[in-house]
Write a structure and sequence with these properties.
Blueprint: H1 3-21, H2 25-43, E1 44-45, E2 48-49
Helix pairs in contact: 1-2
């Protein structure tokens, strides 16, 4: 797995946990997924993953 995958999974889990606090886990998962993809795009540069 790549670092960018862990970023996405982490945000999905955090979003689900926050969503459970408000009794809407699925909405939290979707928001976490969106934020995870945005952060993944920031990690990637020129189509290659930064491993530094």
């Amino acid at each position: 797995m790549k670092v960018s995958d862990f970023v996405i999974y982490g945000f999905v889990m955090i979003g689900a946990a926050i969503g459970l606090l408000f009794d809407h886990a699925m909405i939290g998962v979707l928001i976490g997924l969106g934020i995870g993809y945005v952060c993944r795009a920031l990690i990637l540069s020129d189509g290659k993953e930064n491993t530094k």
